Amino acid sequence: MRKFKCPLIALGVLALSAFGVSAPGASAQSCSGPGTKRWTIKTSLPPNPNVDNPKAIALPDLLALAPAKGVTNNDADFEMARIPAFPNSLNVKEGDIVRTTGWLYLVATEADCDYHIQISTKPRTTTDKPTPDDDCMVVEAPKPDFVDDADLKQRTDTVRNYIKTKMLRNKEPSTRGSVMIHAVCVRVSGQLFYDDSHLKTNGDVEPRGKKGLLSHTLWELHPITDFKIIPSSSCPS
To answer: How far apart are CA 216 and CA 34, in angstroms?
Structure first.
């Protein structure tokens, strides 16, 4: 079994009252998991992942990353394999561990029990609502029960506990999604992952997202390996 260091995220850096989320509504946490589409890739990392030294990439650059070349909707060739390297402006490939910074908009629980998180280049909140011109990236943390590797399991557990403690009053996020009341800047690291299940059969990208903020890229960070709240001055302006 491969090993890599797993530093615990400090839970006392910033006070919970500084942030907060919108009321989750009637839909409490509920999931059936595990998922199916590319599930093995979503819940693992490649051999010898460089998790302690991720490649830093600005969020606008990640949002502009070209689609994976030659990949089709629910491509059977990549159901159990990572998409190979292809020429692109960032010199990245699926499976790379990257780090980016953005404004946290929403946290939700998906049907497969993933924490579905949307980060944006704009500080959107319950009062400063998204516009049609906004974009975001989906980053997700799987339920540790569905992760086989012990080290990655610990990381996903740490990330999810941090999110619950810092922003959700130690509760699971709702399926509808909890939107930030105040602007929250976060730094996120994780595996670059291409969600081809949202690629239309004609090759177009299917926008997805919750509570009015759509993502127009199929690239995600999935699974997340680190997640921290950082000063607002570090986020895109």
So the answer is: 25
Beta bridge partners of 197: none
Q: Which of 215, 232, 224, 6 is nearest to 98 (CA)?
A: 224
Q: Mean pLDDT for each 10-residue chunk of the chain (237 residues)?
A: 37 40 52 90 95 96 94 95 95 97 97 96 96 96 96 97 92 92 97 94 88 96 98 91
Structure tokens at 13: 């850096």
Structure tokens at 70: 């030659």
Q: Which amino acid is at 206?
A: E
Q: Give the number of other CB atoms < 10 A from CB of residue 203.
A: 10
Full residue range of the structural domain in which residue 76 is found:
29-234
Residue whose token pair is 């992942």: 49
115 lies in some domain: yes
β pairing state of 97-109 and 178-194: antiparallel
